[in-house]
């Protein structure tokens, strides 16, 4: 349920509504908008009777949220959420470009990639240290050694870092080294993992499972938000199709659908979605044109030698080309691409 306060109603009036919510054993989430305060009430729906709040001073209206997700809903938070991640903003009018290798393989590989991302105007450095591989015999990542390299590379180039956490037992470790916790597609409905990352103070980059509906993605975000962590970014990375021409089927329409349903930033990963290097740049451009708040792309100094996902990783040259192609598109849709930082 959402309680919309009258314009200008604040202080004691908001507090008395919050007190009543607490008396009922429910959770209040206060959202201070530009013109008015909105209070979200989270908990057992059967206890939520509008008449319990309608008569309180300062209350303008009381509305049920019909959707199963509440905190993720745009009904609850009208304006786009804008996150501060290191020196950059994500969401709203800002375009995030998250680049880096699929897997962290060596210091040399990662530092080279990090410089390419930074010099071309990317806003975050990615790299996997714990890799969720289909085969147990494939490269599984460098673990803590990889995390250490990621932290050092991010510090050297001045970019915040994002890396996947695949197990609740690794959360503290990954939090020590990385700025953003990625929940991979395979773990989108690992509810224990979602709950636990919801209890950290790190922004979470939540990828859609290839078999999940948009509503299921938003319910997974709700798990994180309901634990008190409001810094969540969503990522469309392709769903299962029937055509082997691409690795997955990029659901580009998920971008405007999500933008309508949620205030959270929506990012597209055209690398895993297509699985083919030559398709990554066009689909990154299409994503921004469709209203995405950014892209996550894999880039490797030497993709032929990559230990994972070689065929889809951009070369440094293609990454720079992508940035050049994104710039006029971002401008056309009224967004800010951070561009090359001033020297
Ligand atoms: C990744 O981004 O490293 C990754 C494994 O992607 P996904 O979880 O979308 O398959
Ligand atoms: Mn990959």
Number of strands: 15
Give the termini distance in whole angstroms.
49 Å
Helical content stands at 25-40%
H and E string: EHEEHEEEEHEHEHEHEHEHEHHEHE
CATH topology of the largest domain: TIM Barrel
CATH architecture of the largest domain, by name, is: Alpha-Beta Barrel
Instruction: Write down the overall mean pLDDT.
Output: 94
Strand line-up in the sheet with most strands: 7-8-9-10-11-12-13-14
**Strand proportion:** 15-25%
What's the CATH H-level homologous superfamily of the largest domain?
Aldolase class I
How many distinct helices?
Answer: 11
How would you describe what is shown here?
With 343 residues, the protein is of the alpha/beta class. It folds into two domains: 2-63, Phospho-2-dehydro-3-deoxyheptonate aldolase, domain 1 (Alpha-Beta Plaits), CATH 3.30.70.1140; 83-332, TIM Barrel (Alpha-Beta Barrel), CATH 3.20.20.70. The protein is 33% helix and 19% strand. The chain contains eleven helices and 15 strands. It has helices at residues 12-23, 51-54, 107-120, 144-157, 171-177, 191-198, 214-225, 254-261, 270-274, 277-289, 316-332, and strands at 2-5, 27-32, 37-42, 59-63, 83-85, 88-90, 94-100, 124-126, 161-164, 180-183, 204-207, 232-236, 266-268, 294-298, 336-337. The strands form three sheets. It has an eight-stranded parallel beta barrel with strand order 7-8-9-10-11-12-13-14, surrounded by six helices. A four-stranded antiparallel β-sheet has the order 2-3-1-4. Strands 5-6 form a two-stranded antiparallel ribbon. Phosphoenolpyruvate (PEP) is lined by residues 102, 128, 132, 164, 184-186, 207, 237, 269, 272.
């Amino acid at each position: 349920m959402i309680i919309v306060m009258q314009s200008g109603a604040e202080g004691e009036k908001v507090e008395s509504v919050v007190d009543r919510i607490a008396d009922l054993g429910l959770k209040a989430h206060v959202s201070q908008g530009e013109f008015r305060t909105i209070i979200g009430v989270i908990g057992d729906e059967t206890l939520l009777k509008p008449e319990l709040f309608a008569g309180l001073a300062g209350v303008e209206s009381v509305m049920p949220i019909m959707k199963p997700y509440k905190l993720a809903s745009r009904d609850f938070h009208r304006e786009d959420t804008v996150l501060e991640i290191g020196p950059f903003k994500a969401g709203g009018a800002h375009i995030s470009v998250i680049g880096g290798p699929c897997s962290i393989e060596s210091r040399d590989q990662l530092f080279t990639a990090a410089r390419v991302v930074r010099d071309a105007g990317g806003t975050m450095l990615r790299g996997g240290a714990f890799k969720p591989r289909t085969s147990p015999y494939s490269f599984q990542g460098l673990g803590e050694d990889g995390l250490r390299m990621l932290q050092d590379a991010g510090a050297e180039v001045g970019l915040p870092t994002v890396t996947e956490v695949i197990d609740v037992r690794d959360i503290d470790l990954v939090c020590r080294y990385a700025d953003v916790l990625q929940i991979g597609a395979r773990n989108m409905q690992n509810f224990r993992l979602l709950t636990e990352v919801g209890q950290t103070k790190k922004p979470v980059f939540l990828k859609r499972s290839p078999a999940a509906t948009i509503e299921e993605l938003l319910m997974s975000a709700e798990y994180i938000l309901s634990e008190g962590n409001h810094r969540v970014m969503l990522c469309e990375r392709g769903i299962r199709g029937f055509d082997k021409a691409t690795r997955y089927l990029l659901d580009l329409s998920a971008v405007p659908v999500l933008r309508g349903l949620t205030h959270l930033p929506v990012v597209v990963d055209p690398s895993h979605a297509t699985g083919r290097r030559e398709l990554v740049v066009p689909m990154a451009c299409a994503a921004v044109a469709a209203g995405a708040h950014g892209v996550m792309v894999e880039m490797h100094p030497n993709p032929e030698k990559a230990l994972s996902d070689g065929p889809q990783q951009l070369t440094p040259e293609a990454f720079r080309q992508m940035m050049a192609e994104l710039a006029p598109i971002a401008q056309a849709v009224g967004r800010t691409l951070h561009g090359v930082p001033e020297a």
